[in-house]
Amino acid sequence: MNMAIALLLAAVSFAFIVYPFFRKKPSLSFSSTDEKLKELVTQRDVTYAMLKELEFDYQSGVLSKEDYHELETIYKKKAIAILKDVDEVTKYDLVNDELEASVLKLRRKIKKEPKKVEKASNKDAQIKRFCPQCGAVANPADRFCARCGKALK
Amino acid sequence: MADTGYIALLLAFLASLYSIFANVIGYKRNSPSILLSAKNAVLVVCGLVSLAVGVLLTAIFTHEFQIKYVYEYTRTDMSLPYLAGALWAGNDGSLLFWSWLLSIFAVIVVFQKRKQGRELVPYASAVILFTVTFILILLLSIANPLQTLQFTPSDGYGMNPLLENPGMLAHPPTLLGGYALFTVPFAFAIAALLTGKLGEEWIISVRRWALAGWISLSAGNLLGAMWAYVVLGWGGYWGWDPVENASFMPWLTGTAFLHSIMMQRRRGILKVWNIALIIITFGLTIFGTFLTRSGILSSVHSFADSGMGIFFLVFIGIAVIGSLALLYYRSEALKAEDEIESIVSRESTFLINNLLLLGAAFAILIGVVFPLISDAVMGTRVTIGPPFYNQMAVPILLAVVLLSGICTLIGWRRASTPNLRRNILPPLGISIIITLALFIVGVRHAYALLTFLIASFVTATVLYDWFRGTRSRRRNRGGNWLRVFWGLLMANRPRYGGFITHIGIALMAIGITGSTLFETEETVTLSINESVEVRDYVLTYESKSSSQTSYRRDDIAELNVTHNGRQLGKMQPEKRYYTNQDQFVTEVAIRSTPLEDLYIIILGWDDIEGNASFKILVNPLVMWVWVGGWLAIAGGVMAWWPERERGAADRRNSQVAGGGQ
Questions:
Q1: Among B241, B185, B590, which Cα is nearest to B385's?
Q2: pLDDT score, position B563
Q3: Interface test with A, best of B412, B424, B465, B654 (most A CBs within 10 A)
């Protein structure tokens, strides 16, 4: 009885542990662009958190107006620099997107799939925004232009 | 049954070992299959340990006294909750429970969806499993909770009667939970050192784990204090017992850690310090377990000497020395990105607060290990009593409380002097007025006045901060004061949760001062209908009654109580005799008000004369220790509570207002 249970438990555990080796290979989990981007996102979030903290300190009077504005400028500059880097990294992705869009276009010619393309071009229009001052491409999430620092919207 | 559990533990041990290696190899080779397999192995470990826990619990509930642990800690007449509590009543069971918690946390760490620090997960789970493996070795060798006896006794021996209290159901699991939770930040710190990814990721990944550990450890300590107050019957709640200290030290360093990671996140400083702090905290949690289980110190908490002390020492040695060596190896990469600019800045108050907390922990550590050192050096065991701790730790902790008020007044980087003056004057004025009022009323004790000054200052600074925050928010958005105030708190839960904790700690300081410096204690022997006056209370011993069950005899005294001539009702302290264990337990009678507690303990009976001896205490302000403690924990929970997932539209606006952690 005990032997049977032991064997059963061992078999189930073993099967579960080795199962991933027999599955179709999943994609690599850590690519270098991905990693760089995540690092930047972390830095961005940390900077945002500091800006939030400063705002609350100012609201409750801990920071004087001058100190608040000075510190806010420092951290906003930092945030902008980080966002610039984020754009640098994601540019590769943007290029890839464009490639894929043209591939789709070709496919449409061959297979006639108008629906999908419509969706893709919609998406494209959503992604691309331009800075009114310098004309650089901006992400929808950007509040400031990554090139010239002009406030967007 | 028992064999199934043992087999499960054995297989869990193997799977755990496998997962450690697979995680390391999988990460090194960047192989998703190996990493996935390691991940599944974590789930297997958790499943198997859960199975063993299930087996033990089933045996406890079905009274399988052939299993030694069930025989030693349960009885057929125990109620269901205490039967469940038997899981952590003994040495072996509590180790099993601990490994179970750790394996559950490992599963959460591995399967949690996270934005940051995913690369750290393989090594972090390996470190957690390393701890699990260590405990599994103990469970499989010298602390097997599923060991069977040669025969089957008809009934069990039962739990120590002192443990049959609601405190038993909550105090050990919360404390052990706190210990286990602090393993996770430690694991991520080690993972950061091993992978060399020493940025902010690990700090962000562990913030909520460390906070959860802090909450759990705080609740554990507080519940322990409440339990001691109602059960141990000496009128106090904290005795600087070695094991109380053992759980207080990681609380202190954990508190320091929670504050110093804030500095790394905001300013990119104190990187080495943070890793060192979490290593120390983890080391102290294991050290606490070592103290209770090795039997080297006598304490109300110790289990019988189980011979596992040496195992724990070796484990602490490997963990602490290994991690510190790793930290040294990586110290080049841990250079601060910035520096503290001004002595009058939030950073510097945080740093001083950190040093003080660590200093307090160190002072207590010296007190704890002094008997061992003196034994080794001089051959006599010199035990350190409460006066040492009161003189060493209390002033330091008071300074910490004071700083918790000051730091909220000072901004990051620097504070402009006129601004600081404007912020500090109103709360300081209020606290001075309160202290003067107390002095006029007749409080003359310098220590007490200082504590009340500091505590009221801290509370006033927080309230003043809330007032200004609400006022400026209301100016911008308008609306009802209360609603705006609530909106303010909810807009930045980590910040305001922390402030609530500060108020809680200040209230605790008031309660502790009141109850230790102004208590009245009287020991009296009364015959029936005789009265005694203690402070403003008159107590009359009216009757004695007894009741008997199969395993215990209860003797109950009834006293009539009046306060300044006003009738307050009857109070009934009890003394219980547990026949099985031949042990007396006192059930104290407590009447609690915000101002003071009346606390009656039966010391003994004189059966021939019909007299009874009582110890009667009046403990002022004790209630504030509990109120403050729970408020501090509530603040911790508020800071821990997950921030709402923002939608895409909100994310766009997160430029200034957002950022989350």
A1: B241
A2: 92
A3: B412
pLDDT at residue B422, as a whole number? 84
**Number of neighbours of residue B486 by Cβ within 10 angstroms:** 12
Tell which wins on pLDDT, B464 or B550. B464
CB B617 within 8 A of CB B519: yes
Q: Express each pLDDT in B105-157 by its tens digit.
A: 999 999 987 777 788 999 999 999 999 999 999 999 988 999 999 988 888 88
pLDDT at A31 over 60: no
- Nearest partner of A55 among A44, A65, A45, judged by Cα: A65
Q: What is the DSSP letter of A144?
A: B
More confident residue, A36 or B539: B539
Contact assignment for B465 to A21 by CB distance below 8 Å: no
Q: How far is B119 from chain A (nearest CA, A)?
A: 7
Least Cα distance to A90 among A30, A147, A29, A33 occurs for A33
Q: What is the pLDDT of residue B226?
A: 92
pLDDT, position B656: 38
Contact in structure between B27 and B120 (CB atoms under 8 Å)? no
CA dihedral B202, B207, B208, B209 (to 10 degrees): 60
pLDDT-derived band of residue B484, with 50, 70 and 90 as boundaries?
Answer: very high
The answer, yes or no, to whether residue A119 has pLDDT greater than 50, is no
Testing the interface with B: which of A39, A54, A60 to mutate, by most B Cβ within 10 A?
A60
- In this structure, are strands B574-578 and B531-534 parallel, antiparallel, or unpaired? unpaired
Range of weakest confidence among B262-271, B455-464, B522-531: B262-271
Sheet with B520-526: strands ordered across: B520-526, B611-620, B596-606, B589-592
Q: Which of A28, A52, A62 sits opposite B30 (nearest CB)?
A: A28
Rounded-to-integer distance, Cα B299 and Cα B571, Å: 31
* pLDDT value for B550: 79
Record the tokens describing residue B80, joined without a space. Answer: 């269901």
**8 Å CB contact between A137 and A93:** no
Q: How far apart are the C-alpha atoms of B68 and B196, rounded to whole Å?
A: 47
Here the tokens at position B325 are 């060596």
Neighbours of B423 (CB within 10 A): 24
Place B348 in a pLDDT band, splitting at 50, 70 and 90. confident
| Inter-chain touch A79–B411, beta carbons under 8 Å | no
Q: Evaluate whether B13 touches B135 at the Cβ level (below 8 Å).
A: no
In the structure, what pLDDT confidence band is assigned to residue B295 with cuts at 50, 70 and 90? low
| CB-CB neighbors (< 8 A) of A62 in chain B | 408-411, 415, 419, 423, 465
User: DSSP label at B228?
Assistant: I
> Terminus-to-terminus CA distance in chain B, angstroms?
47
A39 CB near a chain B CB, below 8 Å? yes
Per-residue tokens: B637: 């929970």
Residue B599: Cβ-neighbour burial (10 angstroms; 0-12, 13-18, 19+):
buried
Residues in chain A within 8 Å Cβ distance of B48: 9, 13
Q: Report chain A residues whose CB lies below 8 A from the CB of B652.
A: 140-141, 143
Nearest Cα neighbor of A69 from B372, B411, B374 is: B411
What pLDDT sits at residue B60? 94
Q: A34-47: string of b/e by CB count within 10 Å (b at 16+)?
A: eeebbbbebbbbbb
Chain A: residue whose CA lies nearest to B38: A17
CA distance B191 to B210: 16
pLDDT, position B305 = 57
> Average pLDDT in the B577-586 region?
83
Distance CA B591, CA B618 (A): 10
pLDDT above 50 for B659: no
Give yes or no for a contact between B227 and B169, defined as CB atoms under 8 angstroms apart. Answer: no
Helix (H, G, I), strand (E, B) or coil at B553: strand
3-state secondary structure of A139: coil
